[in-house]
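User: Hey, my collaborator sent me this sequence without any context and asked if I could get a structure. I don't really work with proteins. Can you help?
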Amino acid sequence: MTEKPDPIDRLVQLLLLIAAITTIANGTFMLVKPLEWYVFVPTVVTTGPPNAHFIRDIGLAYLGSGLILLYATANPALHWRAAAVGGLWLALHGLLHIYEVAAGICGPATFWADAPAVIGQPLLVIVALAIIFSRHKRARRAG
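Assistant: No problem. I've predicted the 3D structure and written it out in structure-token form, which is a compact way to encode the shape of the chain:
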């Protein structure tokens, strides 16, 4: 966005901002109150006993991803690489959940309960990046 942002630029920023804020919030919750986070997310209690250290480790991954996405939000067209890096952990985490359902490790009900957060966040980033790339491609063809 070197010129004045248009509505599509703003949409990309909004998608990344939603992903960033929800990711930062989740990571912060995991770091500050890991055992409360464990009970707050209903599907997590079915995975075994809580481990505060492990929850905080994952919280750091969420927090790092969210902060990188927040940086990308300022100028997504220029910082698309940051958006890709910030979304990487989220996408890999979502793919892990898909694998676990496919392998029979967890049931579809658990997957669908987790899907808004686990699949929704990386999907926001993927859509934002797809918009950025399609605009870059059109701009190259026009220029």
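In plain terms: The chain has a mean pLDDT of 94. You can pass these tokens on to your collaborator as they are.
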